[in-house]
UniProtKB/TrEMBL annotation:
Domain Metallo-beta-lactamase: 2-161
Name of the protein in question: Metallo-beta-lactamase domain-containing protein
InterPro entries: Metallo-B-lactamas, NDM-1-like, RibonucZ/Hydroxyglut_hydro
PANTHER family: METALLO-BETA-LACTAMASE DOMAIN-CONTAINING
TM annotation in the entry: none
Pfam families cross-referenced by the UniProt entry: Lactamase_B
């Protein structure tokens, strides 16, 4: 978060709000230059800050990184809408895409003027699709979300975890191939499942979705 604040200052940008794509702890963090800003979302439930902080502190990846934990921000409120699904703010047009993949509800943001898609925890080049296993149809929810993001035709993908890329089609294909393997009960060969924690997530998803 300190690095983000430093980049914002260096570029001379003036942030006007913080967007939470979903209610997982790593998407509701606070930091320098952000604490005074409104926090927006689309129907993200108001999980209390103590619960989110406890989830943050129990995260094994964060513990292994040795990095100090950023504070959890205030609960996000419903975003101001210019029209259904369009953010009302002084910047460029932003379309709010609501879906049920990974966490319910969740969002992605698409800026049609620049072709930029802020994908939240979808379309990562370093993580397998991470399903909401509490959902009735977690794979179907994820497939429908991918269809929604594909329809943007985005030129640039900004994932919540991983690298920015100009490869929307490749990322969609990789995620769909992984999901198809889950449904078929085929062990994953996706290199994104090779990390210890993604391997554990894959095993849990294989067990939950196995035919």
């Amino acid at each position: 978060m300190d690095g983000l604040a430093a980049t914002i200052r260096a570029r001379g940008w003036t942030p006007v709000a913080v967007w939470s794509t979903h209610a997982h702890w790593d998407h509701v963090l606070d930091g320098p230059g952000l604490a005074h800003l409104p926090r927006w979302s689309a129907g993200v439930p108001g999980t209390d800050r103590e619960t989110l902080a406890a989830e943050r502190d129990a995260d094994p990846e964060l513990a292994r990184s040795g990095e100090p934990a950023a504070p959890v921000g205030a609960v996000a409120t419903q975003y101001p809408a210019r029209s259904p699904g369009v953010l009302d703010w002084p910047g460029p047009t932003v379309q709010v895409l609501v879906h049920a993949a990974h966490s319910r509800p969740a969002t992605a943001l698409f800026l049609p003027g620049s072709g930029v898609l802020v994908a939240g925890d979808l379309l990562s080049d370093v993580e397998i699709p991470l399903l909401d296993l509490s959902a009735e149809d977690p794979v179907g929810d994820h497939v429908r979300a991918l269809d929604l993001l594909e329809a943007t035709g985005a030129d640039v993908v900004v994932p919540g975890h991983g690298h920015v890329g100009r490869d929307l089609d490749r990322r969609l294909a990789a995620d769909r191939a992984y999901l198809a393997g889950l449904v078929a009960g085929v062990p994953a060969t996706d290199p994104r499942a090779d990390l210890p924690w993604t391997a554990a997530a894959d095993a849990a998803q294989q067990a939950a979705v196995a035919p």
